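does this look right to u?? adenosine-5'-diphosphate version
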Amino acid sequence: MRPEALNSLFVEVEALEGVGPKLRRPLEKLGLARIKDVAYHLPDRFVERRAVIDLDDAGVGENIVVSLTVREHRSPSGRGPFRVLAEDAVGNVCTLTYFGRASYTAKKQLPVGETRWVAGRLDQYGQMLQIVHPEHVSESASAPLGQLREAVYPLSEGLTQGRVAGLVAQALKGLPELPEWIEPGLLAKTDWPAWHTAMRVAHKEPDAAARDRVAYDELLANALALMLVRQSNRSQRGTPMAGDGSLRSKLRLPFALTGAQKRSIAEIEGDMAQSAPMLRLLQGDVGAGKTVVALSAMLIAVEAGAQAAMLAPTEILARQHFETLRKMLEGTGVEIALLTGRDKGKAREAILMGLVGGSIQIVVGTHAIFQDTVEYRNLALAVIDEQHRFGVGQRLMLARKGRRTPHTLAMTATPIPRTLTLAQYGEMDVSKLDELPPGRQAIDTRVVSVERMGDVVGALTRHFETGQQAYWVCPMVRESENDDLAAAEARYAALKERFGEDVVLVHGQLRPEAKDAAMERFAAGEAKLLVATTVIEVGVDVPNATLMVIEQAERFGLAQLHQLRGRVGRGSEKSTCLLLRGQSLSETAKQRLALMRETQDGFRLAEEDLELRGGGELLGTRQSGDTPFRIASLEQIQKLLPLAHDDARLLIERDGGLSGSRGEAARLLLYLFERDWGVQLLRGG
Ligand code: ADP
Ligand code: MG
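got this back:
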């Protein structure tokens, strides 16, 4: 049960004044569902304005507040903007420029002959000074002059700065006082304000201490929750399992295991022989050979007379894993089944029976495998592929399926830097496949300006003539989902016009059946070109696809580009990756793409990407989806996460966990950041 002190923070945003049905979607887009989300919706940056009397005293590009008298309205001739000519106190003329519908409000706000306080960015347009879309226009001086510094919030379509600021102000008004959960020593050393103050200050000024404190809270909540998982896991009884090797010796692999694979398998074997359940992450680049490591782990369980389950994030992947594993298992006599949400009726019944009766020893599937209706006779190992797609909460669901807590092997191909590994998987031990199987060819990676689209299509034509296939990837970002989808569809249409029926399209909004059908055509070689948004990111394996084109490559994270690129270079033919870039790129963007050309080492890419972005970042902005955090920036994660982990460990191991007064406060913190599965574990265990 959530502590009462937090109740007011968890009230729905609808309770705020002025939030009706119209704002629901825009707020939802920003993830603002409850008052606390609004309170934690921190500014991206602040504008600092200067009050001037004489426009000549202001510089072009400066944010100013000035009193202007309106002289004339100039309605557009044709498609031009609406302009208001106005004069400052000493007679300098300035144009206030409005595009589109904003002109209606402007007409009302700025009647000819009246004087108004105007806030905005002073620009020059030809010989003329101008302010495009002033941020504030008001009759009284107090509002603009009283707020020379103003927060700039992340927005979504349908929201304005003023609106968001108003909602934040309301949310902050009702902010409760909460007890301190940060270690007193750390608080003294850092000079961070208390929570309540920090929240207010973070919205008011670019104050590093306040901002850090708030980010630290988020990091600490995460670290604490992971620590609790780890601790509870240690106290569980699992089933110690020593496989006798009888099945593994029957595997006839067409290759020798790499050193890294052998080492990882040995680490897993060691864990599984213990009575505390294994909690291990297998980290390895795309193509590093995680599947065979997972298979070995599953066979240890089967050799010991138990069952193993492998969870994949998508249907396609589950199916592919199933096929691969089934082939590898030929001749071992091991019974393997596939279970996904699409299995219905008799087929499904048969699998469920096999699992509860124990005749099925290994099951591969989507989240369907841990639904309530699925029971196992003796589940002893859960393998979770592409771990980053699942939250810790889901992981725990699967862990509850065994009579005893099963051993867990999580796998990820997402190369993330060390600090983020700690953030995401801090509760796990890590095995790393840092060595690719021999004989992999380097992928020829090139950065090409989008202006050379004609050449790219030409290259594609020649590529198809050799009988090989290709991928074409378009970006898909949540914030601009609709535009991105439209762009992908337009690209598909254009390529289809050029290459005919041999082109298929896959994106996240397609029905799963349609998606699978397209993928299957491509995998079977019937389609030559797969146009896709990032759904192909994980797992897909088509060795004959040897060319990858990635559009607007600068919009992707390097880890993501790296994973996409990993789809090619899987066969014996030489592979190419073309990174199409926009016309104007920032220096950082250029460096990042150059790095892609330079290395194929996912771990190195991850570390350097963090460096590159960390430095050049605006306050608080970052690629969404990269980290499990909403508030902490990459820089803050690097700086503060190790502290948070130490703090969390001390609290759990030395300071009595969640009992005691700081423990009580820490419990609040876990609820505040919705890491309360940590608390629940503690109660259950
Ligand atoms: P991952 O899941 O880590 O991306 P996979 O397990 O799918 O990688 O392996 C990629 C490819 O490499 C597969 O075709 C697999 O059979 C092959 N492979 C795995 N281990 C080795 C090895 N030691 N030597 C040669 N090929 C290997
Ligand atoms: Mg894999």
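Residues 26 and 164 are 11 Å apart (CA to CA). idk if thats expected tbh
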